[in-house]
Protein backbone atom coordinates (compact mmCIF):
# COMPACT_ATOMS: atom_id res chain seq x y z
CA UNK A 1 0.00 0.00 0.00
CA UNK A 2 1.20 3.50 -0.85
CA UNK A 3 1.49 5.69 2.26
CA UNK A 4 2.34 9.38 2.00
CA UNK A 5 2.54 12.14 4.58
CA UNK A 6 2.71 15.88 5.05
CA UNK A 7 4.73 17.03 8.03
CA UNK A 8 4.21 20.74 8.79
CA UNK A 9 5.77 22.54 11.74
CA UNK A 10 3.44 24.67 13.90
CA UNK A 11 5.65 27.73 13.74
CA UNK A 12 3.29 30.30 12.16
CA UNK A 13 0.60 30.76 9.54
CA UNK A 14 -0.46 27.73 7.47
CA UNK A 15 1.73 28.09 4.38
CA UNK A 16 0.68 27.88 0.74
CA UNK A 17 3.80 25.76 0.13
CA UNK A 18 2.51 23.23 2.67
CA UNK A 19 -0.77 23.04 0.75
CA UNK A 20 1.12 22.56 -2.53
CA UNK A 21 3.13 19.62 -1.20
CA UNK A 22 0.10 18.22 0.64
CA UNK A 23 -1.89 18.18 -2.61
CA UNK A 24 0.65 16.00 -4.41
CA UNK A 25 0.98 13.66 -1.41
CA UNK A 26 -2.80 13.41 -1.19
CA UNK A 27 -3.24 12.78 -4.92
CA UNK A 28 -0.60 10.05 -5.06
CA UNK A 29 -2.04 8.24 -2.04
CA UNK A 30 -5.63 8.44 -3.27
CA UNK A 31 -4.71 7.41 -6.82
CA UNK A 32 -3.17 4.23 -5.42
CA UNK A 33 -5.86 3.52 -2.84
CA UNK A 34 -3.36 4.28 -0.08
CA UNK A 35 -3.17 6.40 3.06
CA UNK A 36 -2.36 10.10 3.49
CA UNK A 37 -1.00 11.01 6.93
CA UNK A 38 -0.59 14.37 8.65
CA UNK A 39 2.24 14.54 11.17
CA UNK A 40 2.82 17.67 13.22
CA UNK A 41 6.57 18.13 13.63
CA UNK A 42 6.52 20.18 16.83
CA UNK A 43 9.87 19.27 18.37
CA UNK A 44 11.42 22.71 17.82
CA UNK A 45 9.97 24.28 20.96
CA UNK A 46 11.79 27.57 20.47
CA UNK A 47 9.74 28.29 17.33
CA UNK A 48 6.45 26.71 18.45
CA UNK A 49 3.42 29.02 18.04
CA UNK A 50 0.30 28.17 20.10
CA UNK A 51 -2.74 27.66 17.88
CA UNK A 52 -0.68 27.12 14.73
CA UNK A 53 -1.45 23.40 14.59
CA UNK A 54 -5.20 23.99 14.67
CA UNK A 55 -4.92 26.56 11.88
CA UNK A 56 -2.85 24.18 9.72
CA UNK A 57 -5.40 21.40 10.11
CA UNK A 58 -8.30 23.80 9.47
CA UNK A 59 -6.60 25.00 6.28
CA UNK A 60 -6.15 21.43 5.03
CA UNK A 61 -9.82 20.70 5.74
CA UNK A 62 -10.82 23.93 3.95
CA UNK A 63 -8.87 22.75 0.89
CA UNK A 64 -10.58 19.37 1.01
CA UNK A 65 -7.35 17.45 1.66
CA UNK A 66 -8.70 15.03 4.23
CA UNK A 67 -6.07 13.03 6.03
CA UNK A 68 -6.26 9.52 7.45
CA UNK A 69 -6.25 9.05 11.19
CA UNK A 70 -3.19 8.31 13.26
CA UNK A 71 -3.98 4.90 14.79
CA UNK A 72 -1.99 5.37 18.00
CA UNK A 73 -2.10 9.12 18.66
CA UNK A 74 -4.64 11.90 18.55
CA UNK A 75 -7.95 10.09 18.53
CA UNK A 76 -10.17 9.14 15.60
CA UNK A 77 -9.18 12.06 13.40
CA UNK A 78 -5.40 12.10 13.85
CA UNK A 79 -2.93 13.59 13.46
CA UNK A 80 0.41 12.36 14.79
CA UNK A 81 2.37 14.79 16.99
CA UNK A 82 6.08 14.27 17.45
CA UNK A 83 6.06 15.89 20.91
CA UNK A 84 3.95 12.92 22.07
CA UNK A 85 6.50 10.38 20.79
CA UNK A 86 9.73 11.48 22.53
CA UNK A 87 10.57 8.11 24.16
CA UNK A 88 10.60 6.53 20.67
CA UNK A 89 13.29 8.89 19.42
CA UNK A 90 15.43 8.56 22.54
CA UNK A 91 15.33 4.79 22.27
CA UNK A 92 16.30 4.85 18.59
CA UNK A 93 19.15 7.28 19.24
CA UNK A 94 20.53 4.92 21.89
CA UNK A 95 20.18 2.04 19.43
CA UNK A 96 22.43 3.94 17.02
CA UNK A 97 25.00 4.40 19.81
CA UNK A 98 25.06 0.63 20.33
CA UNK A 99 25.47 0.01 16.60
CA UNK A 100 28.40 2.42 16.36
CA UNK A 101 26.47 4.81 14.12
CA UNK A 102 26.31 7.65 16.64
CA UNK A 103 28.31 9.23 19.46
CA UNK A 104 27.77 11.56 22.40
CA UNK A 105 29.19 15.07 22.11
CA UNK A 106 29.63 17.32 25.14
CA UNK A 107 30.67 20.70 23.74
CA UNK A 108 29.05 23.75 25.30
CA UNK A 109 27.29 26.32 23.09
CA UNK A 110 30.30 28.62 23.52
CA UNK A 111 32.71 25.88 22.44
CA UNK A 112 30.55 25.06 19.43
CA UNK A 113 30.52 28.72 18.37
CA UNK A 114 34.30 28.82 18.57
CA UNK A 115 34.60 25.60 16.52
CA UNK A 116 32.28 27.07 13.88
CA UNK A 117 34.40 30.20 13.67
CA UNK A 118 37.64 28.23 13.34
CA UNK A 119 36.50 25.26 11.26
CA UNK A 120 33.38 26.51 9.50
CA UNK A 121 31.32 23.75 11.10
CA UNK A 122 31.49 20.94 13.62
CA UNK A 123 34.69 18.92 13.11
CA UNK A 124 33.64 15.65 14.76
CA UNK A 125 36.13 15.93 17.63
CA UNK A 126 33.84 14.07 20.07
CA UNK A 127 34.27 10.95 17.91
CA UNK A 128 37.59 10.50 19.71
CA UNK A 129 36.05 10.21 23.19
CA UNK A 130 36.22 6.52 24.26
CA UNK A 131 32.66 5.13 24.47
CA UNK A 132 33.14 4.10 28.13
CA UNK A 133 34.14 7.63 29.08
CA UNK A 134 31.22 9.11 27.14
CA UNK A 135 28.75 6.78 28.88
CA UNK A 136 30.15 7.65 32.31
CA UNK A 137 29.90 11.38 31.63
CA UNK A 138 26.31 10.90 30.46
CA UNK A 139 25.50 8.91 33.62
CA UNK A 140 26.83 11.79 35.72
CA UNK A 141 24.31 14.04 34.00
CA UNK A 142 26.73 16.09 31.92
CA UNK A 143 24.74 17.91 29.19
CA UNK A 144 25.34 16.49 25.74
CA UNK A 145 23.86 15.71 22.35
CA UNK A 146 23.90 12.54 20.25
CA UNK A 147 25.39 12.97 16.76
CA UNK A 148 25.32 10.80 13.64
CA UNK A 149 28.66 9.16 12.91
CA UNK A 150 28.96 9.52 9.14
CA UNK A 151 31.22 6.80 7.63
CA UNK A 152 34.38 8.37 6.20
CA UNK A 153 35.73 8.12 3.60
CA UNK A 154 33.02 6.98 1.21
CA UNK A 155 30.01 8.14 -0.76
CA UNK A 156 26.24 8.02 -0.29
CA UNK A 157 23.80 7.59 -3.15
CA UNK A 158 20.36 9.17 -3.15
CA UNK A 159 17.86 7.97 -5.70
CA UNK A 160 15.32 10.66 -6.44
CA UNK A 161 12.37 9.44 -8.52
CA UNK A 162 12.24 12.77 -10.36
CA UNK A 163 15.94 13.57 -10.68
CA UNK A 164 17.73 10.24 -10.85
CA UNK A 165 20.68 9.19 -8.69
CA UNK A 166 22.64 11.89 -6.88
CA UNK A 167 25.99 10.89 -5.31
CA UNK A 168 27.31 12.70 -2.23
CA UNK A 169 30.86 12.59 -0.87
CA UNK A 170 30.60 11.58 2.79
CA UNK A 171 33.26 14.17 3.61
CA UNK A 172 30.62 16.78 2.78
CA UNK A 173 27.93 15.20 4.99
CA UNK A 174 28.07 16.64 8.53
CA UNK A 175 27.81 14.66 11.77
CA UNK A 176 24.42 16.19 12.46
CA UNK A 177 22.80 16.27 15.90
CA UNK A 178 20.13 13.57 16.22
CA UNK A 179 19.04 14.06 19.83
CA UNK A 180 19.37 17.44 21.54
CA UNK A 181 20.45 17.95 25.14
CA UNK A 182 16.82 18.62 26.15
CA UNK A 183 15.79 15.15 24.96
CA UNK A 184 14.02 16.39 21.86
CA UNK A 185 15.02 14.89 18.50
CA UNK A 186 16.13 16.94 15.54
CA UNK A 187 14.21 16.79 12.28
CA UNK A 188 16.57 14.20 10.81
CA UNK A 189 16.06 11.52 13.46
CA UNK A 190 12.36 12.08 14.10
CA UNK A 191 11.61 12.23 10.39
CA UNK A 192 13.27 8.89 9.59
CA UNK A 193 11.97 7.06 12.67
CA UNK A 194 8.42 8.26 12.07
CA UNK A 195 8.41 7.57 8.34
CA UNK A 196 9.57 4.01 9.04
CA UNK A 197 7.18 3.30 11.91
CA UNK A 198 4.24 4.82 10.05
CA UNK A 199 4.98 2.73 6.97
CA UNK A 200 5.55 5.72 4.68
CA UNK A 201 6.44 4.35 1.25
CA UNK A 202 6.77 7.60 -0.70
CA UNK A 203 8.37 10.77 0.69
CA UNK A 204 7.14 13.68 -1.43
CA UNK A 205 8.56 17.00 -0.28
CA UNK A 206 10.11 20.25 -1.51
CA UNK A 207 13.46 20.20 -3.29
CA UNK A 208 15.09 22.17 -0.46
CA UNK A 209 15.17 18.90 1.51
CA UNK A 210 17.23 17.12 -1.14
CA UNK A 211 20.51 18.15 0.56
CA UNK A 212 19.31 16.50 3.79
CA UNK A 213 18.37 13.24 2.10
CA UNK A 214 21.86 11.63 2.24
CA UNK A 215 21.68 11.99 6.04
CA UNK A 216 18.33 10.20 5.98
CA UNK A 217 19.63 7.48 3.65
CA UNK A 218 22.50 6.88 6.09
CA UNK A 219 20.06 6.63 8.98
CA UNK A 220 17.96 4.04 7.12
CA UNK A 221 21.16 2.10 6.50
CA UNK A 222 22.19 2.43 10.14
CA UNK A 223 18.88 1.00 11.37
CA UNK A 224 18.84 -1.69 8.71
CA UNK A 225 15.58 -0.39 7.26
CA UNK A 226 14.46 -0.12 3.64
CA UNK A 227 14.33 3.50 2.56
CA UNK A 228 11.16 4.91 0.98
CA UNK A 229 10.97 6.35 -2.51
CA UNK A 230 11.96 10.04 -2.59
CA UNK A 231 10.39 12.73 -4.76
CA UNK A 232 11.64 16.30 -4.37
CA UNK A 233 9.15 18.73 -5.87
CA UNK A 234 10.24 22.05 -7.41
CA UNK A 235 9.86 25.03 -5.08
CA UNK A 236 7.13 27.59 -5.58
CA UNK A 237 8.66 30.86 -6.79
CA UNK A 238 7.89 34.55 -6.45
CA UNK A 239 7.38 36.41 -9.76
CA UNK A 240 11.10 37.34 -9.62
CA UNK A 241 11.90 33.59 -9.53
CA UNK A 242 13.14 33.62 -5.91
CA UNK A 243 11.74 31.09 -3.43
CA UNK A 244 8.22 32.11 -2.42
CA UNK A 245 8.28 34.13 0.78
CA UNK A 246 5.94 36.34 2.78
CA UNK A 247 8.21 39.32 2.10
CA UNK A 248 7.29 39.22 -1.59
CA UNK A 249 4.09 37.17 -1.83
CA UNK A 250 1.08 36.23 0.24
CA UNK A 251 1.98 32.84 1.70
CA UNK A 252 -0.66 32.37 4.41
CA UNK A 253 -3.58 30.13 3.50
CA UNK A 254 -5.64 32.13 6.00
CA UNK A 255 -5.10 35.22 3.84
CA UNK A 256 -6.46 33.50 0.73
CA UNK A 257 -9.51 32.30 2.64
CA UNK A 258 -10.14 35.77 4.14
CA UNK A 259 -9.76 37.40 0.72
CA UNK A 260 -12.49 35.19 -0.71
CA UNK A 261 -10.52 32.78 -2.84
CA UNK A 262 -12.31 29.48 -3.37
CA UNK A 263 -10.61 26.36 -2.02
CA UNK A 264 -11.42 24.58 -5.30
CA UNK A 265 -9.69 27.30 -7.32
CA UNK A 266 -6.63 27.51 -5.08
CA UNK A 267 -6.31 23.72 -5.08
CA UNK A 268 -6.68 23.65 -8.88
CA UNK A 269 -4.03 26.36 -9.26
CA UNK A 270 -1.59 24.55 -6.97
CA UNK A 271 -2.11 21.45 -9.10
CA UNK A 272 -0.75 23.40 -12.07
CA UNK A 273 2.42 24.23 -10.16
CA UNK A 274 4.73 21.63 -11.63
CA UNK A 275 2.05 19.51 -13.33
CA UNK A 276 0.11 19.69 -16.58
CA UNK A 277 -3.00 17.79 -17.63
CA UNK A 278 -2.62 15.48 -20.65
CA UNK A 279 -5.17 17.52 -22.64
CA UNK A 280 -3.64 20.85 -21.61
CA UNK A 281 -6.72 22.20 -19.82
CA UNK A 282 -6.24 24.42 -16.82
CA UNK A 283 -9.59 23.99 -15.04
CA UNK A 284 -10.12 20.60 -13.40
CA UNK A 285 -11.55 19.05 -10.26
CA UNK A 286 -9.57 17.32 -7.55
CA UNK A 287 -10.94 13.97 -8.73
CA UNK A 288 -9.85 14.69 -12.31
CA UNK A 289 -6.40 15.71 -11.06
CA UNK A 290 -6.04 12.45 -9.13
CA UNK A 291 -7.21 10.37 -12.09
CA UNK A 292 -4.79 12.05 -14.52
CA UNK A 293 -1.82 12.29 -12.15
CA UNK A 294 1.46 10.66 -13.17
CA UNK A 295 4.99 11.58 -12.15
CA UNK A 296 5.96 11.73 -15.83
CA UNK A 297 3.90 14.91 -16.15
CA UNK A 298 5.67 16.71 -13.28
CA UNK A 299 8.05 19.42 -14.46
CA UNK A 300 11.13 20.34 -12.43
CA UNK A 301 11.19 23.97 -13.59
CA UNK A 302 10.51 26.42 -10.76
CA UNK A 303 6.75 27.17 -10.94
CA UNK A 304 5.92 30.86 -10.47
CA UNK A 305 3.02 31.57 -8.11
CA UNK A 306 1.20 34.36 -9.95
CA UNK A 307 -1.54 35.98 -7.87
CA UNK A 308 -3.19 37.54 -10.92
CA UNK A 309 -3.41 34.12 -12.62
CA UNK A 310 -5.01 32.74 -9.45
CA UNK A 311 -7.51 35.63 -9.42
CA UNK A 312 -8.38 34.84 -13.04
CA UNK A 313 -8.91 31.18 -12.19
CA UNK A 314 -10.99 32.08 -9.13
CA UNK A 315 -13.19 34.24 -11.34
CA UNK A 316 -13.60 31.37 -13.80
CA UNK A 317 -14.80 29.15 -10.96
CA UNK A 318 -17.28 31.79 -9.78
CA UNK A 319 -18.71 32.31 -13.27
CA UNK A 320 -18.42 28.92 -14.96
CA UNK A 321 -17.93 26.11 -12.44
CA UNK A 322 -20.01 26.88 -9.37
CA UNK A 323 -23.78 27.17 -9.70
CA UNK A 324 -25.52 30.49 -9.02
CA UNK A 325 -26.93 29.02 -5.82
CA UNK A 326 -23.46 27.94 -4.64
CA UNK A 327 -21.97 31.38 -5.27
CA UNK A 328 -24.87 33.06 -3.48
CA UNK A 329 -24.36 30.79 -0.48
CA UNK A 330 -20.63 31.46 -0.34
CA UNK A 331 -20.89 35.24 -0.48
CA UNK A 332 -23.11 35.31 2.62
CA UNK A 333 -20.28 35.32 5.22
CA UNK A 334 -18.59 38.16 3.35
CA UNK A 335 -21.81 40.17 3.23
CA UNK A 336 -22.30 39.67 6.96
CA UNK A 337 -18.70 40.66 7.64
CA UNK A 338 -19.31 43.87 5.69
CA UNK A 339 -22.41 44.54 7.83
CA UNK A 340 -24.83 43.96 4.97
CA UNK A 341 -28.10 42.01 4.86
CA UNK A 342 -30.49 40.93 2.11
CA UNK A 343 -34.25 40.93 1.93
CA UNK A 344 -34.70 37.44 0.46
CA UNK A 345 -32.84 34.52 -1.06
CA UNK A 346 -34.31 35.38 -4.45
CA UNK A 347 -33.02 38.96 -4.18
CA UNK A 348 -29.53 37.73 -3.23
CA UNK A 349 -29.40 35.25 -6.11
CA UNK A 350 -30.45 37.93 -8.60
CA UNK A 351 -27.86 40.36 -7.20
CA UNK A 352 -25.16 37.71 -7.54
CA UNK A 353 -26.35 36.90 -11.06
CA UNK A 354 -26.06 40.56 -12.11
CA UNK A 355 -22.67 41.08 -10.48
CA UNK A 356 -21.16 37.70 -11.39
CA UNK A 357 -19.11 38.98 -14.37
CA UNK A 358 -17.68 41.76 -12.18
CA UNK A 359 -16.06 40.07 -9.20
CA UNK A 360 -13.20 37.58 -9.05
CA UNK A 361 -13.18 36.84 -5.30
CA UNK A 362 -15.97 36.45 -2.77
CA UNK A 363 -14.71 39.44 -0.81
CA UNK A 364 -15.06 41.68 -3.87
CA UNK A 365 -18.80 41.02 -4.08
CA UNK A 366 -19.90 43.15 -1.09
CA UNK A 367 -17.33 45.78 -2.04
CA UNK A 368 -18.62 46.13 -5.62
CA UNK A 369 -22.31 45.43 -4.94
CA UNK A 370 -22.70 47.48 -1.76
CA UNK A 371 -25.34 49.77 -3.35
CA UNK A 372 -27.61 46.75 -3.82
CA UNK A 373 -27.78 46.10 -0.06
CA UNK A 374 -27.62 49.46 1.72
CA UNK A 375 -28.21 53.17 1.30
CA UNK A 376 -24.72 53.80 2.70
CA UNK A 377 -22.51 53.44 -0.36
CA UNK A 378 -19.69 55.61 -1.78
CA UNK A 379 -20.09 57.91 -4.77
CA UNK A 380 -17.17 58.09 -7.20
CA UNK A 381 -15.85 61.34 -8.63
CA UNK A 382 -16.90 60.26 -12.13
CA UNK A 383 -20.42 59.61 -10.85
CA UNK A 384 -20.57 63.07 -9.25
CA UNK A 385 -19.60 64.71 -12.54
CA UNK A 386 -22.21 62.67 -14.43
CA UNK A 387 -24.86 63.75 -11.91
CA UNK A 388 -23.97 67.42 -12.27
CA UNK A 389 -24.19 67.22 -16.06
CA UNK A 390 -27.40 65.18 -16.12
CA UNK A 391 -29.34 66.81 -13.29
CA UNK A 392 -31.77 68.72 -15.57
CA UNK A 393 -32.69 65.53 -17.42
CA UNK A 394 -33.13 63.62 -14.15
CA UNK A 395 -35.54 66.29 -12.86
CA UNK A 396 -37.74 65.76 -15.92
CA UNK A 397 -37.36 61.97 -15.76
CA UNK A 398 -38.44 61.65 -12.12
CA UNK A 399 -42.21 62.16 -12.64
CA UNK A 400 -42.15 59.73 -15.59
CA UNK A 401 -40.61 57.06 -13.37
CA UNK A 402 -43.00 57.89 -10.57
CA UNK A 403 -45.95 57.39 -12.92
CA UNK A 404 -44.58 54.11 -14.32
CA UNK A 405 -46.80 51.22 -13.19
CA UNK A 406 -45.07 48.19 -14.71
CA UNK A 407 -41.62 47.96 -13.07
CA UNK A 408 -40.01 45.34 -15.30
CA UNK A 409 -36.75 45.48 -17.21
CA UNK A 410 -38.53 45.61 -20.57
CA UNK A 411 -40.97 48.32 -19.51
CA UNK A 412 -38.25 50.45 -17.95
CA UNK A 413 -36.08 50.13 -21.04
CA UNK A 414 -38.95 51.28 -23.24
CA UNK A 415 -39.58 54.24 -20.93
CA UNK A 416 -35.98 55.41 -20.89
CA UNK A 417 -35.43 54.97 -24.62
CA UNK A 418 -38.63 56.86 -25.34
CA UNK A 419 -37.64 59.65 -22.95
CA UNK A 420 -34.19 60.02 -24.56
CA UNK A 421 -35.71 60.14 -28.06
CA UNK A 422 -38.23 62.73 -26.94
CA UNK A 423 -35.46 64.95 -25.56
CA UNK A 424 -33.28 64.43 -28.63
CA UNK A 425 -30.35 62.98 -26.67
CA UNK A 426 -28.50 59.68 -26.72
CA UNK A 427 -29.64 57.03 -24.25
CA UNK A 428 -26.30 57.25 -22.43
CA UNK A 429 -26.93 60.91 -21.58
CA UNK A 430 -29.93 59.77 -19.56
CA UNK A 431 -28.67 56.40 -18.41
CA UNK A 432 -25.30 57.48 -16.98
CA UNK A 433 -26.56 60.16 -14.57
CA UNK A 434 -29.41 57.86 -13.54
CA UNK A 435 -26.92 55.05 -12.96
CA UNK A 436 -24.81 57.41 -10.85
CA UNK A 437 -27.85 58.43 -8.82
CA UNK A 438 -28.86 54.83 -8.11
CA UNK A 439 -25.45 53.25 -7.48
CA UNK A 440 -22.81 55.94 -6.91
CA UNK A 441 -20.82 54.46 -9.79
CA UNK A 442 -20.68 54.40 -13.57
CA UNK A 443 -19.31 50.85 -13.65
CA UNK A 444 -22.25 48.59 -12.93
CA UNK A 445 -24.38 45.89 -14.58
CA UNK A 446 -27.17 46.95 -16.95
CA UNK A 447 -29.21 49.92 -15.76
CA UNK A 448 -32.57 48.34 -16.55
CA UNK A 449 -31.66 45.25 -14.52
CA UNK A 450 -30.54 47.40 -11.57
CA UNK A 451 -33.74 49.48 -11.66
CA UNK A 452 -35.83 46.31 -11.67
CA UNK A 453 -33.86 44.69 -8.85
CA UNK A 454 -33.88 47.77 -6.58
CA UNK A 455 -37.60 48.14 -7.02
CA UNK A 456 -39.64 51.25 -7.61
CA UNK A 457 -39.70 52.54 -4.06
CA UNK A 458 -35.96 52.34 -3.47
CA UNK A 459 -35.07 53.67 -6.93
CA UNK A 460 -37.35 56.71 -6.57
CA UNK A 461 -36.08 57.36 -3.05
CA UNK A 462 -32.47 57.49 -4.24
CA UNK A 463 -33.30 59.66 -7.19
CA UNK A 464 -35.29 62.07 -4.97
CA UNK A 465 -32.37 62.28 -2.57
CA UNK A 466 -30.05 63.33 -5.40
CA UNK A 467 -32.51 65.86 -6.78
CA UNK A 468 -33.05 67.43 -3.37
The count of helical stretches stands at 19
What number of domains?
Answer: 4
CATH topology of the largest domain: Rossmann fold
Query: Average pLDDT across residues?
Result: 95
CATH architecture classification name of the largest domain: 3-Layer(aba) Sandwich
Helix content: 40-55%
Number of strands: 10
Structural class: mainly alpha
* Strand adjacency order, main sheet: 1-2-3
Shape: elongated
Major sheet summary line: 3 strands, parallel
CATH class of the largest domain: Alpha Beta
Please provide the ordered H/E string of secondary-structure elements.
EHEHEHEHHEEEEHEHEHHHHHHHHHHHH
**Termini gap:** 75 Å
Report the uncertain regions.
Answer: 71-76
Rg over CA atoms, rounded to whole Å, is: 31 Å
Q: How big a fraction of the residues is strand? A: 5-15%
CATH homologous superfamily caption of the largest domain? HUPs
Description:
This protein has 19 helices and 10 strands. With 468 residues, the protein is mostly helical. The strands form 4 sheets. It has a 3-stranded parallel sheet, with helices on one face. A 3-stranded antiparallel sheet has the order 4-5-8. The chain has a two-stranded antiparallel ribbon with strand order 6-7. Helix 9 crosses helix 11 (307-321), helix 15 crosses helix 19 (456-467) and helix 16 (409-423) crosses helix 18. The radius of gyration is 31 Å and the shape is elongated.
